[in-house]
Amino acid sequence: xxxxxxxxxxxxxxxxxxxxxxxxxxxxxxxxxxxxxxxxxxxxxxxxxxxxxxxxxxxxxxxxxxxxxxxxxxxxxxxxxxxxxxxxxxxxx
Length: 93
Hints:
The chain has one helix spanning 2-92. It contains one helix and no strands. It is rod-shaped. It is 98% helix and 0% strand. It is an all-alpha fold.
């Protein structure tokens, strides 16, 4: 009788050991899933950061372009005004 009780106890211990092992495997799977999600989120974050940097560079380039165009127009306008003044002086003479 003692031998059967020991055998039953052994089987129960094996079953509980298997349950713990399966629980551990499930935790590992969920941990891997969470780690994968974390990596994906990091990659998305880096991608968004690069996109933001590119947009900022484009905005800076656009601002420089607008500044240069404005400066060019102002210089052309100033030269035109000077030429008109010189013409006016010659007409007055």
